[in-house]
Amino acid sequence: MRKYYSKTGRKQKQMKQYDYLIVGAGLYGAVFAQQAVKKGKKVLVIDKRPNIAGNVYTEDIEKIHVHKYGAHIFHTNNKKVWNYITQFAEFNRFTNSPVANYKGELYSLPFNMYTFNKMWGVITPEEAQAKIEEQKKEAGIIEPKNLEEQAISLVGTDIYEKLIKGYTQKQWGRPCSELPSFIIKRLPVRFTFDNNYFNALYQGIPVGGYTKMVANMLGDVEVRLKTDYFEHKEELDQLAEKVVYTGAVDAYFDYKLGELEYRSVRFETEVLDKPNFQGNAAVNYTDAETPWTRIIEHKWFEFGKDDEGNDIPKTVISREYSSEWKPGDEPYYPVNDEKNGKLYEEYKKLAEQEENVIFGGRLGEYKYYDMDAVIAAALEMCEKEL
What we know:
By secondary structure, this protein is an alpha/beta fold. The chain has two domains: 14-96 and 202-385, NAD(P)-binding Rossmann-like Domain (Rossmann fold, 3-Layer(aba) Sandwich); 112-185, no CATH class. It has twelve helices and 18 strands. It has helices at 27-38, 79-85, 113-120, 125-139, 147-172, 182-185, 210-218, 233-237, 249-252, 338-353, 361-364, 371-385, and strands spanning 4-5, 11-12, 18-23, 43-46, 58-61, 64-67, 74-76, 99-102, 105-108, 202-204, 222-224, 240-245, 262-272, 282-285, 294-297, 315-324, 333-334, 357-359. Strands 9-8-14-15-16-13-17 form a seven-stranded mixed sheet. Helix 1 packs parallel to helix 12 (371-385), helix 2 crosses helix 12 and helix 4 packs across helix 5.
């Protein structure tokens, strides 16, 4: 920290205007800001976007809360996180039950008895398990080394070829044989008719949308939008004792060790003059030829009703396209492979040497966090820091 001298020549420490400058008004930044203010700290939150809430931002179109940066379904088994977040919003009973569309054939996602029945005509769990074991044996996989082998060992070759391979390669831009097996370990495979994608005790969508929830978290915190941290870094850093940085860690260091890879997502959103387009919030297009990965129909996150409980005559859909990130694009999630993992470890060493800067969130920690994990990480950091 710079030292300032009074006219008498004695060193004086400049009093900073804020205790914390928080870069990014997404979930990590909002949790930290809320907790810091609660502890009596002075906080300034900045974001380069024209809105708060980061990638969970919802905007209202035709009285529908549209998930502008992709579908976000809150789910957690962490009671502490659930108790924390429900202070700022009431959650509805939405259950994530996506549908897979493979060249016009519709299958249940998560993979369950509906899926196995449609795929093979099996009726009982024993028949389904026997079919998967038979296909697994034929593939000769004992210890899965990559996503392809992991998927086949979980659900067999038929389901892998129809419902996983094309979709996953579109999503990650890489062959499944080059992706780590852990990406698919969280894929639910059930020998029941349970159609809930998540195994979470608590789940739902905040009533009124995520933006409203994050606004409640931020309360009276001072927020400056359309403010690019790197364009004004020197003057912004002078305002606060510490910085909480939730942007991309490699961007912070001006990519001096090289660029980490991210996946980016692009959306084509349109309003349709009909009440129902696909009858479900999410339909995944699992063939390799369809250019989009899925179509989201936003009204079904809130059962087709507006905030007053009325039916909505129109609908809003978003076609989602996955793409490799390049500078200027929004980075959505990290590519957790060995090469990027090693590079992140080098950036992490630099981050640890950075005085008075806390790195947090999906991009700041280069982790493929779900929302509840972001909140848990932010709360943990607050306990250490505040």
